[in-house]
Protein: Amino acid transporter transmembrane domain-containing protein
Amino acid sequence: MAGERMGRSFETQRLVPPAQRPPSAYDGYDGSFDGRGAAVGAFSLLNGERAGYGATLGRSVKDRPGDLTPPWPPSVAIPVSASTSNKLSNWQTFYHLLSFITGTGMLCLPLALVEINWYGVLLLVAAAAVSAYTSKLLVDALETLRWLRGTSVSFSDLGQECFGAAGKVLTSVLVHASFLILSTGYLALASSCLVDVLGLQFGTVMVLVAVCVWFQVLVPSLKTLAVLSAVNVAFSFWIESVILGDAMYPLKQIALEHSDFVFVTPDLSNVTMMGKLSYTFSLLLGGLFGHSIIPTLYDAMADPSQCSSVVARTKLGATALLYLPICCVTYAVYGATLQAPVFFNMRNAVVRNLAIVLYSIHLLLSYTITLFPLQRAFERWIVQPPSGSGRSSPVEAAAAAGALPFVTSSPAAAADQEGTCGGVETTARVLCRTVLVLTTLFLGYFTAPSTLDVFAWMLVPTALLALVLPSVFYWQLCGEDASRVDRIATVVISVVGIITAFWSLAVIVEC
Structure:
């Protein structure tokens, strides 16, 4: 069955009607199978350890002989093989997730302590625990839906299962909007940091930065991209050492009274304590946000059953090894004059410029993993026709006619779901991804978002994707198997997520 998590290539038998049908006609029962999913579905039918394949979890269905009868006519066997050569190991998943969640959070979270003093440390630990818990809820929901459908699933599939077609559309828009906001923010913030170092205009720096990150459109899969994410993890700890070294030498160092940089933060002096707590919790949760990419990594893992463990260790490890030391040391040294990013407080110009360059590279490497899922979704939408349409997309038709250079077309399903785009390679992928790089370039140039702007734009998506939706999906799909504690926790987390998000948004608007 699907829960057995085979980590090696497998060869099994696929059940299809004996009539001659094109490959697209048996891509899946109810349009939800792919090549690998059909094999998993066959195992589910034969093993019969759960009630009726395709039934909604939580409905009491007793095992009966009829439940094991396939919903299609007697069939012939067709061998299906799936390759795991491009699947992610646990370490590669860790690199991707840490590269995604750190982003701006590593140097901006110390600002939380300025608002509520040392209580911010307790709130940081609480935010990390809540984020890790809701990530587990999300993975459990993905696990359940994957077993039900017998194929890989995404955030939008969860929305469709729980709320129908409208839920699928809204969830998909929310997830992809979060990718676009974060990647645009990373590109613009990296450019803003480098303007003073390079002495060039903002637009010129943005173009140079966009050219530097354009190469990532050539990366075919998450497994290949893991190299850049691993480098980014190394940069994260290098930045931490520079910041802590500058702050602790000498230990009595006092921050600059007037920083050379201008960083706009909301004035919370007249805000109630509840408003400060909501704003701070939302800020800390944003630094741990990685839920939008979890379904992508879950689907790409060689052993998806390890996803919950990897995600929890990554978030708790990032909190213990990166966030807590930087927050505690910088706040202890700089106090109420602490700015974000924290290198704005550095007195030594050489060390400060080094930290700025490292931080900018870190943002650009985070940009690559943040934009990758959006690029892949966009290229699939452009290249592949709608499910069950029976026709080729314009790009596939052009490839089949030989109209695109360096492009091949194949009627067979790709063994590597990340390495190709429906049989159309290289040129189509580069064109689609270049369009998105240019989109982030233009959006970043015309909006020129500050860190506060990015945080404000991400308030609602973060609250929904990190707190509310994982709880709702878990309740809908795993409700009858959930413990009483889990049920209470999902309700409390959903309510807290909604209240803190809108209260924080009100604070930002008023300030």
Remarks:
- The beta strands are 10-16, 76-82.
- The first helix runs from residue 35 to 47.
- The chain has 17 helices and two strands.
